[in-house]
Design a protein that fits this description.
alpha/beta
Length: 255
């Protein structure tokens, strides 16, 4: 069973981590964490309740590794509860640190940063996983910013993608198509629930596949297998829904 991290318990664990780290190295060797992905979404937005992992860019003394283990053991957290494994994925780039914003500092020694909105969207689009929360997170972020009167434009997303990855074409074609259609048609909040359900269905399909065919799923093939297993949750159905909404708007009589 996956461990569930929430905004509240992430804060608790990071506070304890800062205390443990300070106990080992004092105040003379400050450390920084840039929270990535789900943890960054949790801290900045209200549409998600939890994440199953906490990815971060970790900068500090070697004692940080031991401090992470000690806090994990104290609270019964899974091994690698705070890790930088994501640096091996396509969505990682060291330029993320340039676009991070300060969140909190614990024990005057551990500064926590999160990724800014359009750069978080760029990361999610670069990954574009059908079995995680990548696309629903994109829609959730767009919906919250629109609701708060600070909408994010496609141009801002394109700039963020270029800043991080060098060019708009660095995104998978499916992600470029997805975000372009979403931005053109809107309805972020309505689509969020549908896309999230599709991601959960795909994740369930992959879980069943892994049970039937142990040791087959690998990082290199999971996207291809997920695509083959998808039913209602594939991107084609999402875009079809967008087109249906758009057509309905065009058919509405003037009032």
């Amino acid at each position: 069973m996956s461990f569930e991290f929430t905004k509240e318990n992430i804060d608790l664990y990071l506070k304890e981590l800062a205390k443990e780290y300070r106990k080992q190295v004092g105040k003379a060797m400050p450390a920084e964490l840039v929270l990535i992905g789900g943890a960054s979404v949790l801290i900045n937005y209200g549409f998600r309740n939890m994440t199953t992992d906490v990815d971060a860019m970790i900068s500090g003394a070697s004692a940080m590794k031991d401090a992470i283990h000690r806090v994990g053991d104290r609270y019964g957290l899974p091994n690698g509860w705070l890790n930088s494994d994501f640096i091996h994925t396509d969505s990682y780039t060291p330029k993320l640190a340039e676009h991070a914003k300060h969140y909190r500092t614990f024990a005057n020694v551990l500064s926590i940063y999160t990724v800014s909105a359009e750069y978080l969207i760029a990361m999610k689009l670069r990954s574009g996983r059908q079995y995680k929360n990548d696309l629903s997170d994109v829609l959730g972020i767009l919906a919250e910013h629109e609701k708060n009167g600070a909408p994010i434009s496609l141009e801002r997303v394109q700039t963020a993608v270029t800043d991080l990855y060098g060019a708009w074409d660095a995104l998978p074609e499916s992600s470029r198509y997805f975000i372009s259609n979403v931005m053109e048609n809107g309805h972020f909040a309505e689509l969020y629930a549908q896309v999230q359900l599709g991601e959960e269905e795909t994740k369930a399909l992959l879980t069943g596949f892994e049970k039937d065919y142990p040791a087959v799923l690998q990082r290199a093939n999971v996207d291809e297998i997920a695509g083959d297993l998808q039913s209602r949750s594939d991107r084609a159905s999402i875009l079809k829904k967008l087109q249906t909404m758009r057509a309905a708007e065009l058919e509405e009589p003037d009032r």
